[in-house]
UniProtKB/TrEMBL annotation:
Enzyme class: transferase
Family: Belongs to the class-IV pyridoxal-phosphate-dependent aminotransferase family.
CDD domains per UniProt: D-AAT_like
Entries under NCBIfam families matching the protein: PRK06680.1 (NF005209)
Keyword set, alphabetical order: Amino-acid biosynthesis, Aminotransferase, Branched-chain amino acid biosynthesis, Pyridoxal phosphate, Transferase
Protein name as catalogued: Probable branched-chain-amino-acid aminotransferase
EC number of this enzyme: 2.6.1.42
Cited InterPro entries: Aminotrans_IV, Aminotrans_IV_CS, Aminotransferase-like, BCAT-like_C, BCAT-like_N, Class-IV_PLP-Dep_Aminotrnsfr
Role this protein plays: Acts on leucine, isoleucine and valine.
Native source organism of the sequence: Albidovulum sediminis
Length: 281
């Protein structure tokens, strides 16, 4: 596999990042994951806009221009022959050459940048989407700026492991009785035909797939309510689902062992998944 590191396309075995890189030492880095379907990048302008927002919230600059970033994405997809899969992009505050809590002077230390691809053949026709995910709920003990897409992913990884240990697919984070989001996705319930998902704030990541799916839902005359919902409401919902760049729209059929509706993927989730994939092709 060919990866991109600080200006160079190199075989992954030859890629090097400093041990003093702040992304490595301090999780001082932001990232984006863009899906590739049939060789095409999905929602790239949205991911680019969110990258800029994450960078600016942390006082970081972009190491390359937007046009260069798009070119690097396309180049990597082509070089690695990716048909279905994803492109991972990470921008770090760079390598100050030592470990220090204060940020280095941006005029002296340039941001670092790494991109790689992952091939996922048949991304759009996942067997998991036909069965739906089962989730457990766990406390949301992440920091308060979940709207910034940083690489501080230890707790989400622990959440995924708790889900795995429980024999299910994912965990939904709960704070003050209300669902924030999934470990790496936005969460939704459907009740009486209304689609309910948490409103945007620093409590959740502003999903790019969320924005697209809500737009499609409204265009299809579905009712969308952007507000926080409780875990209890979720367990009494007719159906549920999650969205993310890598899972698209994924039905959720069980929460903490409580089956939703018939226990099969619901009609709203199924329809939105179909629309999202159709519009992305
Ligand atoms: N995760 N919420 C969290 C906490 C996320 O990590 C993600 C994305 C989302 C969905 O955002 P989007 O629709 O823009 O992918 C919501 C990516 C896919 C990941 O970490 O792999």
């Amino acid at each position: 596999r060919i990866v991109y590191v600080n200006g160079d396309f190199v075989p992954e075995e030859e890629a090097k990042v400093s041990v003093f890189d702040r992304g490595f030492l301090m999780a001082d880095a932001v990232y984006e994951v863009t899906s590739v379907l049939g060789g095409k990048l999905l929602d790239f302008p949205g991911h680019l806009a969110r990258l800029h927002r994450s960078l600016s919230e942390l006082g970081m600059g972009s190491p390359v221009t937007d046009a260069e970033l798009l070119a690097i994405h396309r180049d990597l997809v082509a070089r690695n022959g990716i048909v279905d899969g994803l492109v991972y992009l990470q921008v770090t505050r760079g390598n100050p050459g030592d470990r220090d809590f204060t940020f280095p002077d941006p005029a002296v230390v340039k941001p670092g940048i790494v991109l790689f691809t992952q091939s996922k053949p048949g991304l759009a026709d996942s067997p998991a989407a036909r069965a739906g995910w089962r989730v457990i709920s766990i406390p949301d003990i992440r920091w308060g700026r979940r709207d910034i897409k940083t690489v501080q992913l230890l707790y989400p990884s622990m959440g995924k492991m708790m889900a795995k240990k429980a024999g299910v697919d994912d965990a939904w984070f709960v704070e003050e009785g209300k669902v924030t989001e999934g470990t790496s996705n936005n969460a939704y319930i459907v009740k009486g035909g209304r689609i309910i998902t948490r409103d945007l704030s620093s409590d959740i990541l502003h999903g790019i797939t969320r924005a697209a799916v809500l737009r499609f839902a409204r265009e299809a005359q579905m009712t969308v309510e952007e507000r926080a919902f409780t875990l209890e409401e979720a367990k009494e919902a007719d159906e549920a689902f999650i969205t993310s760049a890598s899972a698209f729209v994924m039905p959720v059929v069980e929460i903490d062992g409580v089956r939703l509706g018939s226990g099969a993927p619901g009609p709203v989730a199924t329809r939105l998944r179909d629309i999202y994939i159709e519009e992305s092709r």
